[in-house]
Write a structure and sequence with these properties.
By secondary structure, the protein is α+β, with helices and mostly antiparallel strands. Strand 1 and strand 2 form a beta hairpin.
Length: 285
């Protein structure tokens, strides 16, 4: 688990950081249920330490069917819900448009009619464009952008073979970018960005279309879109249009009475006090 401590306030624990990172059990061997229960029990013991304000476990979609066991042991006082979405990629040679595209076919066709130029880059200028546009996009929706240092660390830690940065150019200028990670036959949809003034021309659909074809040719079988809030209807619709299947999962939040009081008193600045950590559902404070 990961923890963040603020003197005079207390500690927030996440099974993994960055708000929505899955951190539930991965169990193998002859006694998976016993091992799972032991791990969850130990997490609860840690969560009940006096200075802990809240502790959050985010189930993987595969662990969702074990949720009752987590509920029984953790006895969380709040739940939150997200929908993961995964597209099963076809084999090489299958018709990608027929196999995947459902509700987004017209968007892709519109994108392909534009004069976008595709590049795959790893230079400083491309990464700087990715970060700056990500910050602009998150500001536009009132979200919190990942800092530049996180992109720099990702670039330095992940080998080039495990990541690709696609960029769409128009009239010699970058207008959209898509950062993907690759592991175990799965493509992870990490950071999509698009200049707001070009959004209607669908440069992101242009990038996704080409990146999916590259992934299929390279033998990847799954495209993981990550999680979507239940309130993000248009985003969910966009991903579903690429053949994505829903994979619901749950946040299990255990908090103390004092923890909730601290969160209520500091609601407007929780994201500053505990940066990148999930604390408590804001709509219930």
């Amino acid at each position: 688990y990961f923890s963040f401590h603020v003197p005079a306030l207390g500690t927030v624990i996440n099974s993994l950081p960055w708000y929505g990172s899955h951190g539930s059990c991965i169990v193998r061997g002859n006694f998976p249920n016993e091992v799972r229960c032991a791990l969850i029990t130990r997490f609860r013991e840690i969560a009940e330490q006096p200075d802990v304000l809240s502790a959050t476990v985010i189930l993987t979609p595969d662990e969702e069917n074990k949720k009752d066991e987590y509920l029984r042991i953790l006895q969380p006082d709040a739940l939150d819900h997200r929908v993961g979405q995964v597209t099963e990629l076809p084999e090489v040679g299958e018709h990608l448009e027929r196999h995947i595209l459902q509700k987004t076919r017209n968007l892709v066709r519109k994108a392909l009619r534009q004069s976008f130029v595709l590049t795959v880059e790893d230079g400083e200028a491309a990464w700087q464009f990715l970060y700056q546009t990500h910050a602009e996009n998150m500001t536009a929706i009132g979200g919190k952008a990942k800092p530049l240092s996180h992109f720099q660390v990702l670039q330095s830690v992940f080998p080039a073979s495990a990541r690709r940065l696609y960029v769409a150019h128009l009239n010699g200028q970058p207008v959209a970018a898509l950062l993907l990670l690759y592991f175990n036959h799965t493509v992870e949809y990490i950071t999509p960005v698009v200049k707001l003034e070009y959004r209607s021309a669908q440069p992101l659909s242009f990038l996704i279309w080409h990146a999916m074809q590259d992934a299929i040719t390279s033998g990847f079988r799954r495209w993981n879109w990550g999680g979507t809030w239940t309130s993000q209807k248009s985003l969910h619709h966009f991903k579903a249009g690429w053949g994505a299947e829903d994979k619901p999962y749950t946040y299990l939040i255990s908090s103390s009475k004092r923890g909730r009081e601290v969160f209520v008193a500091n609601k407007e600045k929780l994201h500053e006090l505990f940066p990148y950590y999930y604390t408590y559902p804001y709509d219930r404070l």
